[in-house]
Amino acid sequence: MKGMGVRAFGGIEALEMMDWPVPEPGPGEARVKLAYAGVNFMDVYMRGGAYAKSHTYTTPLPLLLGMEGAGTVDKLGEGVTGMRVGERVAYCISRGAYAEYAVVPAWKLVPIPDGIDWPLAVALQLQGSTAHYLSHSLFPLAPGHTCLVHAGAGGVGQLLVQLAKARGARVIATVGSPEKASIVEALGGEPILYRDVDFREAVMALTNGAGVDVAYDSVGRDTIHRSIRSLKRRGTCVMFGASSGQVEGIAPLELAEAGSVFFTRPHLADYMQPHEVQQRAGELFAMASSGKLKVAIDRTFELARLPEAHRALEGRGTRGKLLLRIAA
Q1: Is this model's pTM higher than 0.85 or not?
Q2: Residue 176 domain-assigned?
Q3: Is the Cβ–Cβ distance between 97 and 5 less than 8 Å?
Q4: What stretches of 173-273 show up as alpha helix (H) in DSSP?
Q5: Rounded Cα distance, 67 and 326, in Å
Q6: How far apart are CA 95 and CA 182, in angstroms?
C-alpha cells in the first residue's frame, strides 16, 4: 500500500510517499480501510524527532505518520467483539493513518453515528478529544472560571473556546489577525491580537489585574513564560503543544513567583484510556449533531500533497482543521 512517512527525522523535505506492507490485525485489533486522515502538530513533532525518546508515542524509523483517521472496518483480529466488517469508525492516538490501511487497537475505534460525515468524524477525534480533556478533565471548567486559550482560531482553539463557553467559563483567546478575531468573537470568546499588544498585559487588563484560572498554551517557546504570569494565584498553566518550538525548561521558582501556580505538560494518550474514549467521542458527536459544537474544516488535501498540509500547519495560518483525503 502507499503511505506517507519519513526514513529519517527532519523537515518537510523528509516526507516521502513509500510502499508499505498492508498490515494484518493481531488479537484485539482491527484493520481500517481509511477514507480520511487528520493533519496535526503531533505529526510535525514526530516527523522532526521531538518524540524520538518518547515511551508514550514511539517513532521507529522508517516512520509511517498520521495519528487519526476514519474509514470502514476491513478485517477483525482474534477476540474482537461488538464490531463488524464494513462498519464506519474513527479513531486517534494510533500511528499510521497517512496510508490506505491502518491497524488499530479495537478499543480505540468509535462508531460514527448516522449524519456524521467523514471530515467531521475525523475533525472530532484528536483535536476534539484534546479540547474535551483540557476543558472537562485536566481543569474542569465551571461558571466563574476565566481561561486563556492560545491560537483561538485554530483547529483545537475553536473547539476549546466552544467547550469552555458551554461549561460556563469566560474565554480570552489570542489570535494573529482581525479575521481570526472575528472567528473567536462569533464563538463567544474575547480575542487578543497578540501581534499588536503584549497578551499578558491585555489579559491582566481584561481581568482587572486578577489573571486567569487556567491558561491553555499550544504555542510553547514564544508564550509559555508570559502564560504562567497571566495566571491567578494558584492558577494552572497547561502546555499541550509547541508550535513555536519546544520549551527547554521551567524553573520551579518561576512558578512560585507567579503566585504558587501549577504547570503541566500532558499527553492526550493519558486522557484517552479505555473507559474515556467512547465517552469523549459520544459527547462530541452529540454536540456536533445538535449544532452546539461547530467544527471548521479549513482545507482538504490529497495524500500526495501532505507536504503542503504540513507547510500550512507550521506556517500558523490555518483557520480550522486540515484533512487528508485517502480514498474517494
Answers
A1: yes
A2: yes
A3: no
A4: 178-186, 199-206, 224-228, 252-257
A5: 14
A6: 35
Do residues 222 and 209 both lie within one domain?
yes
Task: Give the closest residue to 152 by CA, choosing from 128, 187, 202.
Answer: 187
Domain endpoint, select from 268, 284, 307 = 268
Alpha helix ranges (H) inside 49-142: 118-123, 126-133
pLDDT at 257 over 70: yes
Determine the length of the chain: 328
Average pLDDT, the chain: 96
Residue 193 grid coordinates: 491580537
Among 138, 141, 134, 110, residue whose Cα is nearest residue 124 = 110
* Cross-strand pairs, 76: 30
Residue 287 lies in a domain: no
Cα–Cα distance measured from residue 268 to residue 157, given in angstroms and rounded to the nearest whole number: 15
Cell of 31: 484493520
Q: Are 65 and 43 in contact (CB under 8 A)?
A: yes
Q: Is the pLDDT of residue 328 over 80?
A: no
Question: Tell me, what amino acid is at 303?
Answer: L
